[in-house]
Amino acid sequence: MPWSRPSSPVWGWAEVLVPLLLLAFACLNDEEDSGSIDLPPPCGDTVCLAADGEDPDTCPWDCGFRYAILADLGGGSGGGTPGADVDAVQLRKPRAEYWVETVAYAEIGGPENQWTDPSLIIGPSDSECETQNFVSLGGKRSFVVLSFGSDVLLEVGDEIEVFELSARMCDNGSNDDPWELLVANGTDPSAAEYVGEGRGLGEVEIDPW
Ligand SMILES: [Ca+2]
Ligand SMILES: [Ca+2]
Ligand SMILES: [Ca+2]
């Protein structure tokens, strides 16, 4: 009689589970490598489903967000430096602080804008109130989509400070330009959640309630 593998239940489960675990691991790695544009919600659809009695509209806040979207609320006048002039943005958690690591997407406005390089918003504040190292968003409908790190989520209770070159930050006649801040898991501001707004140097707290 030829040898045959014992048909114990342990073998049966192992044959099903091991490939599934390998597949799940491969999927996780795929997500890590897939770039930073329009990723699914960080904790997945199943976790984001509203619990019994919970308002589904508040549910995304439980999961955290990948991006802060900083949008200009100004009129856009200002020639070479139209709209909000942003040197840097800082995310503050109870035990850690982060500066912008990447700009996932940007729509910068202003036909005469001389400060259109959104990468100048990355890293610690470095303008030192001189005409250097900032981006002018360009007025209404202009925005930048900011990531503080591929493994850093924006969560309820976090504070976000916007270093906008302004009378509140500098002693050089800079204007306090208005802006608003949203959080999202994609790069479309129309699908983002509103957090708050400010004018010049200022901060908002992520608090949907
Ligand atoms: Ca300006
Ligand atoms: Ca800067
Ligand atoms: Ca300004």
Helix/strand layout:
Blueprint: H1 9-33, H2 44-48, H3 59-63, E1 67-72, E2 85-93, E3 96-99, E4 102-107, E5 135-136, E6 143-147, E7 159-164, E8 178-184, E9 193-199, E10 202-205
Antiparallel strand pairs: 1-6, 1-8, 2-3, 2-5, 2-7, 4-6, 7-10, 8-9
Q: Concise description?
A:
The protein has 3 helices and 10 strands, in the order αααββββββββββ. The protein has 209 residues and is α+β, with helices and mostly antiparallel strands. The protein has one domain (56-205).
Describe this structure in words.
The protein has 209 residues and is α+β, with helices and mostly antiparallel strands. The chain has one domain (56-205). It is built from 3 helices and 10 strands. It has helices spanning 9-33, 44-48, 59-63, and strands spanning 67-72, 85-93, 96-99, 102-107, 135-136, 143-147, 159-164, 178-184, 193-199, 202-205. The strands form 2 sheets. Strands 4-6-1-8-9 form a 5-stranded antiparallel β-sheet, with no helix packed on it. Strands 2, 3, 5, 7 and 10 form a 5-stranded antiparallel β-sheet that branches. A hairpin with an 8-residue loop joins strand 8 and strand 9 (193-199). The radius of gyration is 22 Å and the shape is globular. The protein starts with 8 loop residues before the first helix and ends with a strand. Residues 5-11, 23-35 and 45-51 have low confidence and may be disordered. Bound molecules: calcium ion (CA) (3 copies). One calcium ion is lined by residues 87-88, 120-121, 126-127, 133-134.
